[in-house]
Amino acid sequence: MKRSGMDQLALSRRALDQLMPMHLWFAASGEVLHTGPTLTKIAGGADLRGRPVLDVVDLLRPKVAAGVPALLLLQGARLRLCLKSKPDLPLRGMIVALPAGVGGLINLSLGLSFARAVTECDLTLRDFTPCDQTVDLLYLREANAAIAQESRNLTDRLQSARAAAEQQALTDTLTGLANRRAMDAALQAMVDEPLPRFGLMHLDLDFFKEVNDTLGHAAGDHVLARASEILRAEIRAGDIVARVGGDEFVLLFRDCDDPDLLEAIAARLISRLEEPIRVDGQLCRISASAGSVLASHYERPDRDKMLSDADLALYASKNRGRAQHTLFSDALLAPPRHN
Amino acid sequence: MHGFVNRALQGFLCDTYGLDAWDEVRSQAGLPFDGFESMLHYEDCLTDQVIFSAEHVLHRDRASLLEDVGTYLISHPNQTALRRLMRFGGDSFFDFLQSLDDLSGRARLAVPDLDMPDLDIHHDRSNRFVLDIRWRLPGMGPVFVGALRAMADDYGALAFFEAERQENGCERVMIELLDTAFASGRSFSLGGQTG
C-alpha cells in the first residue's frame, strides 16, 4: 500500500452519523448534502438537504465574507455559530475542507447552552455519543443543584437554631449587659424572696437621640457601650444592670431599703454619665433621668407594679427638666391637677 | 461515614415509619443529636448502631430492612434527585447495568469526599450479570438488590435479583435480565422538568 493511501479514510454516512451526530456536510456549491441525526433533531426535524449551507447556518464569530470559499478558509478555527432557525441557541463548531474540492464538513457541539438545548430540543442519552461529555455535564449540573439545596437546608437549620438560641439569650449583644429577659427573671426571683428588700431604678439616657441623629448610629452605639461600662462600674457585685430598650436601663440593688442611698447612687450615676464621651474626635454630652422604687414600700411587692411605678417616677424626672432622679411616692399616682 | 448515607437512612425511617419511629431508633442508638446532616461526616459506628436499633424497633431482619432502604432511595417521591442521577447511567436497563462500574466515579464527581462502595460488574452470560460490592460495612448487597429492583421498574425491565454473601467480605448480587422492555417504565427527560 502506498503511503499516500494512509492519509485518506472512507467513512459511510452511517459511521459519520454515529461518530458525529451533530455534523453538517455540504458540497462545493454550498448545498447541504447531509446532517447528523442530533443536528436534525435540533433543527426541529427539518430536512435541510439541498439548501445553501449559509442559509442554514449563521456564523457569529469569526465574521467572514459571504461565500463557501471564505467559509472553507476557516478550517480548524474555533467557530461560534447557530442555526438560522434557532438564533437563541449558540453552538460551537469546527469546519474541515473535504479533499479534492468536494465541499466541507462542519462538526458542532452544544457549548455552554447545553442544558437549555437538551430541554428545548428534547434530546436524550441516545442523541450523544459516548465520547461527548455533555451528559456528564448535565449530570454534574443536576447533582450540584441537589447538593446546593442540601447546603441551603443546612444553613436554614443553623439560622433557626441561632435565632432560637438568641431568643433564649440573657445578654444584650451590643452592651454585654443583661437583657430584659434576664432582668425579668432576676426581678421575679427578688420579689419572690420571703422578705424582699431591694431597690429598682429605671434609667433613661437624655440627649441620646441627638447623638444618634447628628453623629449616626455607629456613634450612638459607641455612646451606649460607654454608658453601659459606667453603669456596670458603679454598681456593687450582686446588683444587676440590664438594658431593656434602646437607651433604657433597669438597675436592681440588693439589700437596699434606704431612699437616701438610692438618691446618692442616682446622683453619682447621672454625674458620671454627664462626663463627655469622645467619639471619633467629637465630644458627646449626654445625661440621664431616673426613677426608683423600694420593695419595702409595698406590703406585697409585685414585679409589674414596681416596674410601672419606677416608670412613673422616671417620667416625673423627665417632666421636671431631665438629668435628675425621683423616688416613687404615692403622690405620683394622683391625677394631674387642672388649673 | 458521609452524612449523605446517614441522612438517607434517616429519610427512609422517617418517610416509611414516621417521626416517632425515628425518635425511638435514635434514642436506642444513643445518637447525641436530633438528626444527621447531609454535609457532615460521622463515625461509622453511628450508622451501624442506627441500623441495629431499627432492626429491633421495627422487628425487621437486617437484610429485608436494607433491601427496603435501597428501594426507598430510588422510588420514594422524596428521593427524585437520586433516581434522576441514576438514570444518567444509560438509556436502557442493560446500558445502566454496564455503567455500574462508573457509579462511584460519578458520585465522587458530584461529592468528592463521598465514600462509595467498590463496584465490579461482569456480564457473564447473555442475560446474566454479576455485581461484586466491597465496602466497610456489611449489608450493601441487600441495599443494591432493593435499589436495582427499583431501577429495573423505572426502566420498565423485568429482572430477577439475588444477594449472596461471599467468603472474602465481598457481597455479590446476581442479576438475571429477563426482558428489557417488559413495561413502559417511568419517563426520563435528560433536561429535567418532567420525569
At the fold tier of CATH, the topology name of the largest domain in chain B is H-NOX domain
**Unreliable runs of chain A:** none
Q: Which residues of chain B sit in consecutive blocks of at least 5 with pLDDT less than 50? A: none
By DSSP (H or I, 4+ residues per run), the number of helices of chain A equals 11
* Overall number of structural domains of chain A: 3
Could you characterize what this model shows?
The complex is a heterodimer of chains A (339) and B (195). Chain A is an alpha+beta fold. In chain A, the strands form three sheets. In chain A, strands 2-1-6-5-4-3 form a six-stranded antiparallel β-sheet. Chain A has three domains: 3-132, Beta-Lactamase (2-Layer Sandwich), CATH 3.30.450; 135-168; 180-332, Reverse transcriptase/Diguanylate cyclase domain (Alpha-Beta Plaits, 2-Layer Sandwich). In chain A, helix 9 packs antiparallel against helix 10. Chain A has eleven helices and 13 strands. In chain A, strand 10 (277-279) and strand 11 form a beta hairpin. Chain A is rod-shaped and about 115 Å long. The relative contact order of chain A is 0.08. By secondary structure, chain B is an alpha+beta fold. Chain B contains eight helices and four strands. Chain B has helices at residues 3-17, 19-29, 44-58, 62-75, 80-87, 93-98, 103-110, 140-155; strands spanning 118-125, 128-134, 158-165, 171-179. The two termini of chain B are 31 Å apart. The A-B interface holds A 115-116, 118-120, 122-126, 135-136, 138-140, 142-144, 146-147, 150-151, 153-154, 157 and B 37-39, 81, 84-85, 88, 90-91, 95, 106, 109-111, 189-193.
Give short descriptive properties of this protein.
A: 339 residues, alpha+beta, Beta-Lactamase, six-stranded antiparallel beta sheet, five-stranded mixed beta sheet, rod-shaped, B: 195 residues, H-NOX domain, 2 domains, four-stranded antiparallel beta sheet, 48% helix
Characterize this entry briefly.
Chain A has 339 residues and is an alpha+beta fold. Helices cover 39% and strands 20% of the residues of chain A. Chain A is built from eleven helices and 13 strands.
